[in-house]
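Example 343, ligand iron/sulfur cluster.
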Amino acid sequence: VAHPPAAPRAAHALGVLTDSHGRTIRDLRLSITDRCNFRCVYCMDPGAEFLPPSERLTPVELERLARLAASMGVERIRLTGGEPALHPRLIEIIERIASIQGVQVAMTTNGSRASARAVSEWKRAGLTRLTFSLDSLSPERFTSMSRSNADPHAVIDAVRGAIDAGLSPVKINAVIVRCFNEEEIVPLAGLARTLAVEVRFIEFMPLDAGRRWRRDLMVPASEILERISRFVPLVPFGRRTEHDTAERYGFADAAPGSIGIIASVTRPFCGACSRLRITADGKVRPCLFSEREWGLMPLLRDGADDADLRRFLVDATWTKQPGHGISSDEFAPPPRAMYSIGG
Ligand code: SAM
Ligand code: SF4
């Protein structure tokens, strides 16, 4: 079904995007492409096939959707993918979205295209916050996880470049997968201290294209925290906001930097979720794990007016499920993998 069922009239009257469990959407994740030059083991398969460009939302369509979302209470928009930095019109996309009043533009990148010059251009175009993904400091482990020939030290240089360019905050995400990079937890925590940034450890979620996720491949938050605490004691800082995905910790010795723990599997935070996702091919996904998604493309390309699109977004949001249910016996991973949803 492409069109979501109609939400109650009261939901439409609110003028914001709310779901049937009382949550309001403030964060939009916009995937601008499903293409990527990495093949991370927890995300994409080596043989991945990508959308033809004509099936991707154009910069004008992305701006239109972002503007509508902002007019309905969305405050933060994160560009993601796939690898957003591969998009040939990235600067134009950032400029268009940054021109919307009241919206902060963020992006998540694997850092492979984040030269000092590129990062300054992104900043000039209106990007404010930048998150890098970096799962290992060891070149061998980095290669086996990302299945690319990129150099982790180039990503570290890119993080420095982003800080120097004035992007703020700059963060690093690391997905920890058993037998791949659990030995990287302590070196990555050390990197948070030397770079004075937040390094966020993410529990591996069942969103890999190869469907190899098993609970015992996931390194739980408790173990990540224990390993770091043996290296340096931590002090809990709590979440930055009630909707934040990361629990934050500082270093007891007052060193700079911080640790974030995104415990999506063992300590789900679905009850406070404020996020909505739109995929590169224009599917509204109320949850990472949604079984149902709602296709905007026919409406967008068939001359729908803003009122039609607003109605569609309210109806789609209303279908947001209460939680991801990874721990339930009935759980089935969604048909799309992370790169084609937009993390
Ligand atoms: N290509 C960019 C990057 O890697 O930063 C942006 C897109 S990527 C899908 C966004 C985030 O999702 C990354 O930080 C990545 O580590 C995370 N991710 C991908 N697959 C995941 C999984 N199965 N479990 C947890 N996080 C995952
Ligand atoms: Fe590409 Fe990001 Fe997925 Fe890695 S996590 S394959 S960099 S989209």
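Summary: The first helix runs from residue 9 to 14.
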